[in-house]
Structures are given as C-alpha cells and as structure tokens.
Amino acid sequence: MPVPDPTQAERARVAARIRACRRCPRLVAWREDGDRGLPVPGFGDPAATVFLLGLATAAPGNPTGRPFTANRSADFLVAALHRAGLADQPRSEHAGDGLRLSGAWMASAVRCPPPGHRPLAAERDACLQHLRDEWHALPHLRAVLALGAFAWDAALRAADVDPRPRFTHGARVATPDGPVLLASYHPSPQNTNTNLLTAAMFDTVLGRACAEGRYAPPTTSEEST
C-alpha cells in the first residue's frame, strides 16, 4: 500500500491560496480585464529536489494553469529538462499534453501575468510568501535555479539572504536553513536568439543544480541491463 504523503495537503492549500490571491490591484485588473485566468501555482514532482524559478507567468500560458507553457521560453526550458532527465517530454504546450517532471518543480516569482511581462518590485515582494510556502511544501528540495536577475532577487529575498549578491550567470549562494540558490540567464528569446544563453550553457548550470539537489535521472530498462 502506498505511504501517504504528509505534505500533499499542504501543497494543495498553497495552490489554493495562490489561485485566490488578490494582493496586487494592478495584476488583478490586468488579468480580469483580459480574461487571462487565475494566478498560477507551481508544477512538478512532489519529491522535487530542484526548483526552477522564472520571472512571471506569461499571458499565453496563464489560462492553462501551468507555468512555462505555450511560449518560446518554455520550449527552451522544457527541452533542457528533458535532456537532463527531469521531464518525460521536450515540450510544454498545454495542460493536457501529458508533461511530467521527475525531481523538479517549476514556478514563477510573480504568479500573475503582468502588463508587458514587466512585474513591479512590489508585486515580487507580494508573491514572496507564496514562494516560501511552496518551498516548505516540497520536503526534499535542495536547490533553486533562478532564471534571470528578477527571479534571482526574489529567491534571495525569499531565503532572507542579506546582503544580496548581484546577479551573474552561474552564481551560487548557500543558505543556512534552506536550499542552495543558483542563477542562470533567463531562457527568453532575447537571450537565446543572441546566444547570451546557449543550450550548452544552460545544460551546465542545470547540471550543477541537479548535483546540488543530489538528483540522478532514473535509469531505463535498457541502461540497467
């Protein structure tokens, strides 16, 4: 008989609080005026050791209720997760596409889609408790990979790191009571199309996050023979 997961109910409560959140008047007005859906909780494996933290929920993916879905940043990120053995398929197209993560969880620092995809610092701060709550509801979490300077700042603030180191690709900060924090350039088309962030660069930093998380991809039957 499967052993009950004592944190399952807490993850459900966190997700419900995120979906019901109305802390930011500008974001509430933006999402409701354009029928852009509800705030988006994180998605992934409840046994995740690695947490991928993005900037803000993108408007195209928001109605799906899943982060990193139906946009080019998602295409880059999920393909990398698939190469690393963290995702069972290389695309994230819609909520019913069957995507499953193994050892990983993904979410955004700001859970609503902001106008122009530009969240405000106050909106980041309003969302910090949601981020902390998700971290606490993932009992095996060991590493957070922040995608871009905005997410890096959110991760440092959520972990109460002070002073906060400046963002650089590949940065690493160990926290005394929480996960190790790592930084990468965001996988936006602006960065990937200009080769500021290449697939090889991202594979390297994602590999470091997996090592910090002590995550090893499951072997297939062919690999184990």
UniProtKB/TrEMBL annotation:
Keywords: DNA damage, DNA repair, Hydrolase. Residues 41-206 form the Uracil-DNA glycosylase-like domain. Pfam families: UDG. InterPro entries: UDG_Type-4/5 (IPR051536), Uracil-DNA_glycosylase-like (IPR005122). This is Uracil-DNA glycosylase. It comes from Pseudonocardia abyssalis.
